[in-house]
Amino acid sequence: AGRAERAQQVAPALAVGAAPRPSSSAKSGWWPLSAMLSHGAGLALWTALSLLQTGLGEPVRCNFTLTESKVFSRSASLQWRTLGSPCNFSLIYSSDTSGVAWCHPTRIDNTTYGCYPKDLQAGTTYNFRIVSLDGEERTVVLQTDPLPPAKFEVSEEKTTSTSLHVRWTPSSGKVTWYEMQLFDNNQKIQETQIQESASWNEHTFFNLTAGNKYNIAITAVSGEKRSPTIYTNGSTVPSPVKNINISAKTDSLLISWSHGSGNVERYQLMLMDKDNLVHNSVIDKYATSCSFHGLTPGHLYNLTIVTEAAGLRNYRWKLARTAPMEVSNLKVTNNGTLTSLKVKWQRPSGNVESYNITLFHQGTIKESRTLAPQVTETQFKDLTPGRLYQVTISCVSGELSAAKMAVGRTVPDKVGNLEVNSNGSIRSLVVSWSPPAGDWEQYRIVLFNDSVVLLNITVGKEETLYTIDDLELIPGRQYEVEVTVESGNLKNSKRSRGRTVPLAVLQLRVKHANETSLGIMWQTPVAEWEKYIISLADRDLLFIHKSLPKDAKEFTFTNLVPGRKYVATVTSISGDLKNSSSTKGRTVPAQVTSLYVANQGTTSSLFTNWTHALGGIEFYQVLLIHENVVIKNESVSSETSRYSFHSLKSGSLYSVVVTTVSGGISSRQVVVEGRTGKKSTWKLQSIF
C-alpha cells in the first residue's frame, strides 16, 4: 500500500512536469521538470518506475548506514551498507553554483553500495543525498579540496631591486582567498592573503634586498580547506652601482664607484668605443675601482658597469672621456713689434675638438678666442708696448681640457724727446726725456766717449731727467748718450748727442797797444774746441768779428781809434756751444797838433793853444816848465784847446808841454817854448 501511494505521488509529478525537491524528508517539496530532465531526469524516472513495478506488496524498509564519505578536488567517494535485504538506491548531489546531478550507485557486495561522482568543482560544498526506494535517505554535506593555481610565476619584467612581482592563474573551482608566503633562506619573512579574482591574480612584495633569491609559496583556501602548497622562486634585480666617478688621464681612465644596496656576486666593466668593445673586465664583488690603460687622449668612450647577482644583471652607464693632451712647442713671440704677439704651437696626439686661447694681463682677460683643431697659430694685435702677457691655450675635448701657459712680452717703446744738454756746465750733462707709451721697468743710461763707455747706470721708471756729473767730463767735448727702455728681457734704445760747454781761454790780456792797434794774447785751456771767434767792441758797438783757428794764441786789432777804450773777446767754439773770455784795452791817445805859445805883448803872461787830438780824449794835461822845473801842472777839459799862464817872469824862457790823456794813458808829449817880454815873437821850437 505504501509503495502504491508513493507511485501515485510520482506519476502525477511526471504528468504535470514536477518532481520531488530534495530535502531532509522525502515527502517535502518538488523539483521542476526541466531540472529533472537536465540534471536528474533519469533518476526521477527510474524511481517512479521502480515504485510502479513493486506493485502492491508490503514495503521492506531499506535501513542503511554511511560507511565512507571522501572528497577530492574533482571527485567524491561515498559508500553505505544496508542492514537488511538488498535495496535500490539513488545518489543526488548539487552545490550552490551548479544544478542537480545524479550518480548511479554500484553494488559492491550484498550489503555494500557505493557511488563516485566525478567532474566536481574544486573547493565547492556539495549536498549528497542517498535515497532508497522505500523513502529512506541520508544527506551528506562535503566540500571538495581546493586546487592550487595551475600557473604560478615571477614576473621578471615587473621585478625591481627591492620588489618581486608574482602572478598566477586563478585556481579551478572555488577559492575564498590565496595565502602567500615569502621565504629567504627557508625563513619566512612576509605573509599575505589575496582575495580570489576571476582573472589573473598578482601581488608584489616590497622592501626586499636587492640581488637576493627568494622562494614564494601559494596556497588556495576555500572555506576550511586548503590546497596543496606550490612554490616558485625569483630574484630581485641587483642594485646598480652608485656614485660613478671617473678620473681621466690622457691615456687612462680610473673608474671608481660605490656599492649599491643588497647582494652582488661580481661586476663586469665594459668600455666601448662606439660599437667596438675596447676593454672588458670582470672583477669581484668587493672591488670599488678599476683602471683602463692604453687609451686615446681626448677620446669619448661609453662605460657600462654591470652588477650581477642571483642570475640577474643590472647596469649603469656613463660617458667617459680621456683627458686631451697639451699642445707642444708653445711659443709666444713679438717679432720685433711693439703692439702684437704671435702664438704658435703643435697639435697634440689624440682627439681635439677646439682650442680656447686666452690672453691675460695680471690675471685679467684681455681677449679670448676659440679656434678649430687644425689651426696652429694666431696673432693678438693692438697690444700695449712693453707689456708682459700670459697666453693660455686649452685643448678642448668634450667637457675636458688641457691647458698650457706661456708668456710673451711686446717690445717696449722708446723714450720721446730725448735731449742731452750741458745747461751751461763745462763738466756735466743733463739728459732729459719723456716717458714711452706702454709698460716698462726701468731706464738704462749709457754715456759714450766715441766707443768707450764712461757710464752705465739704471734709473727708476718714474725718472725723466738725469744729470751726469762727477765724471770729469772734458769741456767742449761731444758725448753720446743712449737711453734704453727696459721691460723684462726686452729693451728699446734711443741715442742723442750732447756737448759740454767749452772752456774760455785763459789769461787773456793786452799784449801791446799803440795809437791805432791793440794786440791781445791768451793761453789755451785743457778742453776741446773747434775754433775761436774774436771780437772787439767799442762802446757796446761790435765792429770787429773774426774767426781764428783753434791753435791761435794771439791777435792784433788794427786801424783803431787812438785813445779809445775797447773790449776784446775771445770765444771758444765747440759745436753750438761757446764760452768767452774778455779783456779791456785802450789804444794810446793821439797827441795834439799845432801847439802855439805867445806872450801877446805881455811881460808876465803866456798864452797857448792847440788843435784837438784825434780819437778818445778824457782831458789834456798842460805843464809849464821853467829851468827844468814844473811850475804849473794843469788838467783841462777835453773840450778846451787853449790855456794861459800868468804871473810869470818877464823876459824868461818857458816850456809848455801838452799831453793827451785817455783812460790813464798819456799820448806822446808836445812841447813848445815861449818867452815873456814886452815885445817878442814866438815860434814852435821842437816836438819831443
TrEMBL record:
<feature type="domain" description="Fibronectin type-III">
    <location>
        <begin position="414"/>
        <end position="503"/>
    </location>
</feature>
<dbReference type="Pfam" id="PF00041">
    <property type="entry name" value="fn3"/>
</dbReference>
<protein>
    <recommendedName>
        <fullName>Fibronectin type-III domain-containing protein</fullName>
    </recommendedName>
</protein>
<dbReference type="InterPro" id="IPR003961">
    <property type="entry name" value="FN3_dom"/>
</dbReference>
<keyword id="KW-0677">Repeat</keyword>
<feature type="domain" description="Fibronectin type-III">
    <location>
        <begin position="504"/>
        <end position="596"/>
    </location>
</feature>
<dbReference type="InterPro" id="IPR050991">
    <property type="entry name" value="ECM_Regulatory_Proteins"/>
</dbReference>
<dbReference type="InterPro" id="IPR013783">
    <property type="entry name" value="Ig-like_fold"/>
</dbReference>
<feature type="domain" description="Fibronectin type-III">
    <location>
        <begin position="326"/>
        <end position="413"/>
    </location>
</feature>
<dbReference type="InterPro" id="IPR036116">
    <property type="entry name" value="FN3_sf"/>
</dbReference>
<feature type="domain" description="Fibronectin type-III">
    <location>
        <begin position="148"/>
        <end position="240"/>
    </location>
</feature>
